[in-house]
């Protein structure tokens, strides 16, 4: 029997949603996009980075615009994140604050254009006490090689769900 899986993600540029859809093919999980209100971020990457930095400095994280399902119904929750300046994107940080009471295995997947820094440690630290497993990251370039990306995701997934 396959574990009931939720694939939740935030995608600013469209890269993370590509990875989420590939993971859906591999896991047969349900997709849930995390949305923020229009105008929260700019279409300019550098301006968005400045907005996110300010959100982190002030602790004023963006509110999610969509209602979340009952997270306790899932056995596995995959959390898709664009890595911004080696940090978890602020909309996903908002989501992670709401994952504190789940018994599901929580696993990050992430996209980045450069260094991920201590991203996985930061993710795990935000969810102390939960069953957080090692995630997987890909770049936009890797995701363009669809067959190869699916193969890597299948290998990773099969090791996690043995």
Automatic annotation (TrEMBL):
What is a single Pfam family found in this protein's UniProt entry? Flavodoxin_4
Reading the lineage from the top rank, the first entry is Bacteria
Q: Which GO terms describe its molecular function?
A: FMN binding; oxidoreductase activity, acting on NAD(P)H
Specify the Flavodoxin-like domain's residue ranges. Answer: 4-138
Q: Could you tell me which PANTHER family the record lists for this protein?
A: EXPORTED PROTEIN-RELATED, FLAVODOXIN-LIKE DOMAIN-CONTAINING PROTEIN
Record-given protein name: Flavodoxin
User: Per the UniProt entry, what species is this protein from, by scientific name?
Assistant: Paucilactobacillus hokkaidonensis JCM 18461
